[in-house]
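Working notes for the structural subgroup meeting. M.R. asked for a predicted model of this chain before we commit to crystallization trials. I am recording the input and output together here so anyone reviewing the notebook later can reproduce the run.

Input as submitted:
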Amino acid sequence: MDWNDLKYFLAVARSHSLTEASRALRVSNSTIARRIAALEQSVAAVLFTKRNDGYTLTAPGQAFFERAEQAESKLLWLERNGAVPIHEYAGSVRLALPELLGQHFIVPSLPAFFRLHPAVQLELLADVRPLNLTKRQADLLVRLVCPSHGDYLMRRVGSLAMAVYGSPDYIATYGLPETYSDLPGHRLIGWDNSLGYLPFSRWLFDAIPNANITFRAHTMSTQLAAVQAGIGVAVLPAVVAKKFGLKRVLTSDAPFYSEIWLLQSADTKHVARVRALSEHIAGYFETSTEMLTRAD
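Returned structure, recorded in token form:
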């Protein structure tokens, strides 16, 4: 088997399309089709079923996909860190964080880490959408939802208060909504439909299914900017909202509390630089409990 064929297989399996895979890999459709055919011949199995809506994995293809992702993750790790001994505090670490919590809470703590470990190179991925450790998208990952499965080390490192906030100018113009029943006359800021499943989004909008959502965004930083501009009110991490002088609304209702989980890929449990960053982050959360859990 040609190991290079794995990237073509994975690209098609993830996109379900030769065209999308060719764009991602910057090669022609015919090249990908030829490499997929060669791969299927080498493993003596049909990996895809071609349908009108794209390429679908067969049962052997699905089994191969799971093992191919594992192989990909190890190859990517070797590419980034293969020459760095695991006991050295040097080399790259890829850290994935929730967007606002990462930018405004964890990143300000990192100078202390770099003073102790100046040879570590940090790659930061900040996004509200969860990444996958098994694909080696990250070595460490902070999540606000407890994962149900995966090959990683996991520990709860704290709790985060989230509540609905508005700007002083917005409240002066539209008034202060104190309960859910006050919200129909207010302008709400929410997630775009693809991210409406997020627990802290559902917490508010499940309670008011006919909410007047006048502004939607797919990042929390954009929602924060919209609240600061006085466009409406939104669910935000309390520790960030207070930093920008925003005022809590719905004060008669309890805030939403999200547990904070720190995940580490099982393959890196003996890698010194990853373990050191994990301990730094966990310690910082544990000493900041009061700051993270106060909504007022």
